[in-house]
Amino acid sequence: MLRIVAIANQKGGVGKTTTSVNIAASMHATQHKTLLVDIDPQGNATVGSGIDKNDLSFSAFDVLMDDSVNIQDAIIKNVAGGYDLIPGNSDLTGAEVGMLDRKEREARLKTAFEPIIEDYEYIFIDCPPSLNMLTINALVVAHGLMIPTQCEYYALEGLSALLETAKKIKHVLNPGLEIDGVLRTMFDSRNNLAKEVSGQLVAHFGEKVYRTVIPRNVRLAEAPSHGLPALVYDRSSAGALAYLALAGEILRGKKA
Fold first, then answer.
1. What is the pTM of this model?
2. What is the tens place of the pLDDT at every residue in 89-104?
3. Among 99, 110, 118, 254, which is disulfide-ready with 141 (CB 3.0 to 4.6 Å)?
4. Hey, what domains does the chain have and what are their CATH numbers?
5. Residue 254 pLDDT exceeds 60
């Protein structure tokens, strides 16, 4: 059965795109048919998947804005991490304004997905670092929300706006939306503040915090510049192994 997961946090620099690329690669590695959808105008998930974001025949922008574009035409099969990809680039900045006068603007992505819901087991959506119409479209179509967050000061405060938005969307537009989990990223176990905030997240969110913790890892940071997920760049690295562990946790349906 298909599971659609929006990966979002309105705060930038928390490992959102790194998580999107690497969890897609890890799910593919565990023999699950996976699609990654890049709706962030920065296009970093596209680049991190080994695709030139400036040389696209079709992109997520076309899927959202052009009713004549078939979503299958926008899918790039078997990118560097083995998963399929709907790429994104700066064209998406125009979608935010362009969708304002469109019918059912909050459900454009949901409608676009209808022809492919039987084709995949997991669809991950890399959202922009803001609570705009693109992120709302992802939350309307998603079954679950994954929230990567660094264990740093203001981490709890930074989650509040996203959680409030998700709550409203669940109430009004998508009753099936659930918080899949909060993912601790770029974690340095030598940092006392990081350990303190990690404890606060577990105390506040309980079982909604993934047991898996993504460490601060050089190979994980290097991989995007090579257009590769960490699993392909260095399978034995701590970062790659952590995302494989996260994939296993998701498949088992267990949190901390």
1. 0.96
2. 999 999 988 888 888 8
3. 110
4. 3-252 (3.40.50.300)
5. no
